[in-house]
Structures are given as structure tokens and as C-alpha cells.
Amino acid sequence: MISFIINVIKIIFLLGFLIFIHEGGHFIVAKLCKVKVKEFSIGFGKIIWQKQKKETKYTLRLIPLGGFCNMEGESEESDDEGSFSKASVWKRMAIILAGATVNILFGILVYFLIISTVAIQFMDPAKDTIFNRIYYGAKNTGVFIISIFESIKTLFAGGIATDQMVGIVGISEVVVKTTGIINYIYLLAVISVSLGVTNLLPIPALDGGKILILIIEIIRGKPMKVETEAKIQLIGFSIIFALFLLVTYNDILRIGSGS
Q1: CA 152 to each of CA 11, 13, 75: distance values in angstroms, whole numbers, following the listed order
Q2: For 113, left (φ over 0), alpha (ψ -120 to 50), or beta?
Q3: How much is the pTM?
Q4: Which residues does 72 contact at the CB level (< 8 Å), separation at least 6?
Q5: Which of 166, 30, 8, 23 has the alpha carbon at shortest distance from 85?
Q6: Could you give phi then psi for residue 40, rounded to 5 degrees?
Q7: CA-to-CA distance for 232 and 199, rounded, in angstroms?
Q8: Are 61 and 80 in contact (CB under 8 A)?
Q9: What is the DSSP string of 100-133?
Q10: What are the pLDDT digits (tens) for 225-252?
């Protein structure tokens, strides 16, 4: 029973933390750009905790599979001075990019620190200097980043089937199997970078899809209609949700078969 509780805590903390820093990136840059944030939420569904502070309501919701930073004028017409839609295209782009950027930078920094710290186990004691550790950490971190982009390239080239993808159930299984704080933090870093890079893919409903819409706005010289953008986002969300269900189903089958 204790082991089960610990595993649940490990999974919820990992998901919650990555969501928090992602949405926190959006939140901080929105504030810096003078855009009003109506609600900052971790999780979806029913509210289990909330606190109103000035213009923003902070909430914790029941389902820890995501979060959101609801900004004034983001999904509706608004003439408010602090409206997202009234901000310059470059400020809106910075706000959208902030979430994934924080995930990537956090993951890379943690990965670098771990690799640099454990480098002493693989180095000649005579060469164990802070500079050599930094070099070792930077070199391996670079390889790590390249491997992620290679995986994405393979995915789009059709080299990875949907039954080879890992969803929330598969990730939870990996988290449960981690032993020791270093392995857990290492996994946290890997998932953080992967989450950040994936979120920047030019797919509607993801941050990358929103960036693509802003690039189209720059080219056209005028913003897309709110209704049109909402329809595009809905289509993208539907596709992602369908993929989520398929990957989750495959995760369950894989775990059930013991493969």
C-alpha cells in the first residue's frame, strides 16, 4: 500500500511540476507584456482548490493531465487594455513560446547538471576539473538534444508507428520503475525537454500551431478571424485527443502483454 502511494505521488508530482513550469512560462511572460491573466490552472475538470489574487484566479483541478493560462481576449473578442488580442504579434508570440521554452531550458539545465556531476565516475582523477566536467556535460547534453530531434524527424518520416509511441500510461510505468532520486530527476529532465520540443510542433492546438497562425498573420498583415482560429484549434484538439486515446490504448495492451 505504501509503495502504491509513493508511486502515485511520483507520477502526480512529475506531471504537475512539468505542467506548472510550462504554464508558469506563459504566465510570467504574459505579465511582463502587460497581458491580463484571468485564470492560472494546474489540471482540468472540477476545481478542488482556488484562490483569487488581484485579477487572476489560481486553481488546482481534479485531472492532472494538463493546465492552462487563460488570458483576457485569448479566445474571445476584447477591447480591454490588457487583452491578449490587443498585444503586438511579437508579444503574443513571446507569450506562446515561453511555455515550451521553459520546459526545454529546464530539462537541458538539469540534464547538464546531472551529467556533469556524475562525470567523476568516468573520468581519470588527474583530469577531474570543473572545466572537464562542464565539457563532458555539454557534450552529452548536445547528443541528448540531437537524439530528440532525430526521433521527431523519424516520426514525421513514418519511421515510428503509433503502437511504438508512449503516452501518459507508458510514462507512468517508466516513472514507477525509477529507483533513486537521480534517476527520477533524470527522467524529469528528459520528459521536460521532450514535452517542450513536441509542444512546438506546428500542429493546431499545440503552441507550435498557434505560432504558425501568428506567422500567417505577419505574412497577411492582419489577424485571422477569431471564429476561424477557434475552428482550426478545435480540429487540432480533436486529432490530438484521438491520438491520445489510441496511444493510451496501445500502452495498456503493451503493459498487459508484459512487453
Answers
A1: 25, 26, 30
A2: alpha
A3: 0.81
A4: 35, 36, 37, 38, 78, 80, 82, 83, 84
A5: 30
A6: -115, 115
A7: 16
A8: no
A9: HHHHHHHHHHHHHHHHHHHGGGTS-GGG--HHHH
A10: 777 777 887 887 787 777 777 777 666 6
Is the pLDDT assigned to residue 18 strictly greater than 70?
yes
Rg (CA), the chain: 20
Q: What's the CA gap between 134 and 248, in Å, rounded?
A: 39
Say how many Å lie between the first and final Cα of the chain, rounded. 25
Query: CA separation (Å) from 26 to 42, 142, 208?
Result: 13, 26, 14
Lowest mean pLDDT among 29-38, 126-135, 159-168, 184-193: 159-168
Helix (H, G, I), strand (E, B) or coil at 42: strand
The residue type found at 70 is: N
Which of 13, 15, 67 minimizes the C-alpha distance to 40? 67
Which residues on neighbouring strands pair with residue 56, listed in sequence order?
53
Cα angle, residue 142 at apex, residues 137 and 143 outer, rounded to 5°: 100
Cα(25)–Cα(94) distance, rounded to whole angstroms?
10
Give the span between the Cα atoms of 136 and 127, in whole angstroms: 12
Q: Residue 39 has what pLDDT? A: 94
Which residues on neighbouring strands pair with residue 67, listed in sequence order?
42
CA atoms within 13 A on the CB side of 125: 0
Which parts of the chain fold into alpha helices (H)? 2-32, 89-118, 130-156, 168-177, 181-199, 207-220, 226-257
Cell of 194: 521532450
